[in-house]
Amino acid sequence: MSPASRAVDHLAKPPPPARLKAAFPVRDYAPGSEVFRSHGHGQEPRWFSCSGAGRFDLATPDGTCYVAESEVVTLLETWGGLQVVPNYKAAERDSSCLRLDKGARVADLTSNLAIQYGVTSEIFSTIDYGLTQLWASALRQAGFGGIRYWARHDLAHTAGCLALFGPADPKKSLAGFEVLNTDHLPDRVDLLDELEQQTGIVVLPVPPI
């Protein structure tokens, strides 16, 4: 294989939903599993995006709620690319713990068994959101409740992210997807310390002008 042929994206379009439904790798989350979300201060954490701005956004009337198995990973995705975070940015965020009362059955993009369907690790980092959203739509049609994937800005790959599918209409019931607690991020000194210890990313005060 020539060097030039490697300098292309290998992530394919998804196969038909019927093929995905038959044997695509699955990750099951037991009822009561807890996940985490970083979100705007004072905002509802159970937000299902359909704007197209998210990697695995579905089109209305459905949407996608982005959570993670680790609080640190939620901050890596929030502040991707930053090594120093101004404290006013931290003040704009909350951190919530949510419980999946009914559990979740999701497509596992972190499994090597997904390779046979055309998945590559580019699905975690490509900026071609049109393509990744095609995957989300196909997996939704195949009956999955969401997607497990690796965060673009996390190098450890020990805690995954979840793109959970649900109603984009905020008036729809969210029973079974409960908010256990929400903290204003500046109050979570323990979490910010953990972020610094694991990644070197620091939150620093910005002096008044």
Report what the structure shows:
The protein has 209 residues and is an alpha+beta fold. It has one domain (11-78, 97-181). It is 22% helix and 27% strand. The chain has six helices and ten strands. It has helices spanning 3-6, 17-23, 71-78, 87-90, 129-141, 189-199, and strands at residues 26-29, 33-40, 62-68, 84-86, 93-100, 104-108, 146-149, 161-167, 177-184, 202-204. The strands form three sheets. Strands 1-6-7-8-3 form a five-stranded mixed beta sheet. Strands 2-5-9 form a three-stranded antiparallel beta sheet. A two-stranded parallel ribbon has the order 4-10. Helix 2 crosses helix 5 and helix 3 (71-78) packs across helix 6 (189-199). The termini are far apart.
Summarize the structure in short.
The chain is α+β, with helices and mostly antiparallel strands and 209 residues long. 22% of the residues lie in helices and 27% in strands.
Ordered list of secondary-structure elements with their pairings:
Blueprint (H helix, E strand, L loop, with lengths): L2 H4 L10 H7 L2 E4 L3 E8 L21 E7 L2 H8 L5 E3 H4 L2 E8 L3 E5 L20 H13 L4 E4 L11 E7 L9 E8 L4 H11 L2 E3 L5
Parallel strand pairs: 4-10, 6-7
Antiparallel strand pairs: 1-6, 2-5, 3-8, 5-9, 7-8
List its traits.
209 residues; 6 helices; globular
Strand order of the largest sheet: 1-6-7-8-3
Structural class per helix/strand content? Answer: alpha+beta
The radius of gyration computed from the alpha-carbon positions, rounded to a whole number of angstroms, is 18 Å
Oligomer: single chain
Portion in beta strands: 25-35%
Q: Count of helical segments?
A: 6
End-to-end gap: 56 Å
Please trace the helix and strand order, writing H or E for each element: HHEEEHEHEEHEEEHE
Question: How many domains, in number, for the residues?
Answer: 1
What is the β-strand count? 10
The helix content, as a percent range, equals 10-25%
The major sheet is characterized as:
5 strands, mixed
Q: What is the global morphology?
A: globular
